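Exercise 7. Predict the joint structure of the components listed below.
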Amino acid sequence: MKMRIELKENPRVKEFKFILKRIRDNSLSIAGLVLVILFGIIALMAPILAPPIEGRDPYIIPRSGYYPEPQPPSPEHLFGTTQGQYDLYYGVIWGTRAAYRIGVLVVGVSVIIGILVGSLAGYYKGVVDEILMRLTDIILAFPGLILAMALVVAFGPGLDSITLALILVGWPSYARLVRGEFLRISAEDFVEAAKAIGCSDLRIIMRHILPNAIFPLLVYASLDIGSIILVAAALSFLGLGPPEGYADWGQLISLSRNWITGTANNPFAYWHVYTIPGIFLFLFVMGWNLLGDAFRDVLDPMLRRR
Amino acid sequence: MNSDVLEVDEQLKVDNLTVRFYTYEGIVKAVEKASLHLRKGETLGVVGETGSGKSVTALTILALTPPPGKVEKGRILFRRNEDTVINILNLNELQLLRIRGREISMIFQEPNAALNPVFRVGDQISEAILSHRKEEIISRAIRIIKKEIEGEHASLCSKLQLWAYNKILENEKKLILRIIQSIPILKGCIRKKLDQVLREEIIRLLKLMGIPDPERIFNAYPHELSGGMQQRIVIAIALACSPTILIADEPTTNLDVTVQAQILDLINRLKEKFGTSVIYITHDMGVIAEITQRVAVMYAGSIVEVAPVKEIFKQPLHPYTKALLESIPRPGSPLKSIPGSVPNLINPPTGCRFHPRCPYVIDKCRSVIPELIQVSRDHYVACFLYGDGENG
Amino acid sequence: MSVSLRVYVARRLLLLIPTLMGMTLLVFAITQFFDPVERASLYITDSRQARFAQEIIEKYGLDKPFYIQYFNWLMQVLSGNLGWSQSLHMRVLDAIITRFPATAELVIYSAPLIILTGIYLGKISAVKRNTVIDHASRVMAIIGWSLPSFWLGIMLLAIFYGGLSIFPPGRLSVWAENLVRSGEFETYTGLYTIDAIINLNWPVFLDAVYHLVLPVITLTTINVALIMRVMRSSMLEQLGKMYVTAAKARGLDSKTVIDKHATRNALTPVVTLSGLLTAGMLSGAVITETVFEFKGIGYFAAHAAVQLDIPAVLGFALFAGILFIIANLIVDILYAYIDPRIRLR
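Solution:
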């Protein structure tokens, strides 16, 4: 016999509306949302905003020559060129897409692995929990950047290595989070009740615990995207990323290092080379951080009702 | 019941208090025109279910309404001494500091939540005593040092202590004092005598509370003690300055029945000794019967009935009071609960807030809010069933 | 130190061993990505030995099963042999030891600045919640947190060094460098500022500080947000607790309640985070050091990574791991000291 309990308003919908309101109320989060959407549009419209050359990997930046000195913005090159005559405009536009690609991939896969591991550990507890937690502990025993560096060196430099390394370094945090939530929720009465009725483990996990545990996870995921991109850009900056000429913000910034002193007359002659890619990166990360911050504020029950 | 001034024998009066909480979900009308008065030397019980507004009222008496609450209307009249009556809600922060913990003290439901977990118990009591009885403690310390100097027992620090204490008595804020106090060794030196005096005083206080092994307790952390012991400490702190009024917000609800009896006994003894008037908040009618002289019944933010304790039990007038008494489990008789549920305070029922659950409801109840009226010498009730046309 | 604290410390020290083992296992697992010839470089102590790859493979059993290799490798590591670094032309262990003081110098000045500023900002943010001060500090913190450290470094260099010709990269100017290398200057710690003080050599001291300004500002700006955020939420949590209301009800003034009671409790998670942050920076503020050519272990780790110098990178990783674990330990003990309730767990 199926029982249906009618509620005046689905509590999840109510939660969601509450979040929207909080976001609306806070101008910082709106700014974050705007930035994230803006960059999203740029990423989606990359082929239109900066048409790639036929037959080539669109992520390779077209170059007009091999002259090392960067050229200032001009009608042909909206943002000028960087060292080696790579078109900066093209670079940052497709760099946006690259950023989203890495971000979504890394966070997406990390979250999935994290959920798998975390739910197993948090639900079955005991030995399974111990083993899995030791594993996460070991990985978390390293500062992320260093471990990622070591992994990238092991895999060989390149964007894929960075992606893989960041996934491997990132999933333990999610696993711990999910595990914590599982432990907390498993202790609740309704889980006991479900077990008593005879629900299968999988069903309990999927339908009862997971939906409740997901929320804090989303918060951390959104906060994380910003950090992931920063680390990925840092690794590219160091030279462990894609080869020169690839549309990658970190790459572009590292290319700008030689030009910070400018010319004899004008110390800021090459300002576009280091400022523009940096601003893109900075605003992208800040947008996600603002959004994530808003989510977190909302999630914190103590701060909520005020 | 709207007199401008307190009666001679009244210690405290809450007059038409309205407190509202501004939350996301709406405005919670937690306390609505609540009035009660406390007489000198008595124990007034305040009964009500969870959510009736008892704790909010209690905290408001000390002007500690928790945010996002705001006092919309009302006065809290306090008789400080023979000729001074003040409205607590009109005081500024500095004046309030003199009242809290000194003239009016409060103890709470969760004893270990009321004590700071990272400081030792002795330190916390010292802090409280020092903040209110500073002159007394310092004077005592000075006297002891002077005696020691005369009797050639002076220690290295004595001169410094004497100088520092005198300076503090004159004026706390002297810059040079603060500078010296920030140097750890000198600070320790200055504190030594004070700590000694405080320790003596506290041990004396603890013994008074009937706390065994006071030396060990002094050095303990709150979590190392049992609930009952913690509560005794909290009471010790509350009564350390012989306050005029003690507000007890369900202090025994979380304790064992046996411990509860001890605590109640302690409160009574101290009340006799210090002459304190007590407001005792609870939802347990048994406790009410045991220690109170008068009772105020609170429902959904208002006081619905006030009467001497015997009359409340023998002749409850308000339908809610009646239902409350009937719902006390009795062996042999079936369990009776009050039908319906506690009202939503964001959208409370119109008129009398109890009307949806009242077996005697009449039309008027749905639209007009009844006021507390006097039906006999000391018995007040807010219900249209009583009174003669003035209210109805 | 009370008994309960001692017991707690003992327990944690015991737990140290499996954690260290696990960490070394992970590092070793990474080495398995390389073929035996490459891995041979982990065991040699100078460049000439590289020619004897085959002998090395046999000696350390690099083609034998995992656990035998692990054991051999562990023994080498414990005896101080971390291999030879091609890119740095020295033993990895030596590289770490000689380069570490530079990083330490950077961190000694940055960490207190970060922690104290973060605590202060977090505290005012919480106490003056939702006022202009709160919003302003939060915005500043988020900006700092979102800034890519390498970009901030580059921008600062472009403005100050490029534009104004002040605050150049590196640790010391050329003249100071020469002075330090010469016999006239006694090197004690490897931290130029401290050594300069001991040598009573003010010009070198000032020069070192001069070179520290931008890197310290960069590190601080990026990391303050982290501490501030945690302090803020921790304070807010404490301010809502019952004992704060009870303390106010006892008549304690706001200053005492906030500064003494609430702050003390609020500091505990901040302490943990600060410790981990400092450890993180010590194990190589890789980016900042690279941008400013500040030759600490981070700088050389990056250098080595690009050259695919496996022993060096792994050596640094191992070092970072150990540092981190020790930092965790210290932080846990500190935590137990601050909050007596933890000791029971």
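Discussion. Chain C touches chain B through 22 residues (CB under 8 Å).
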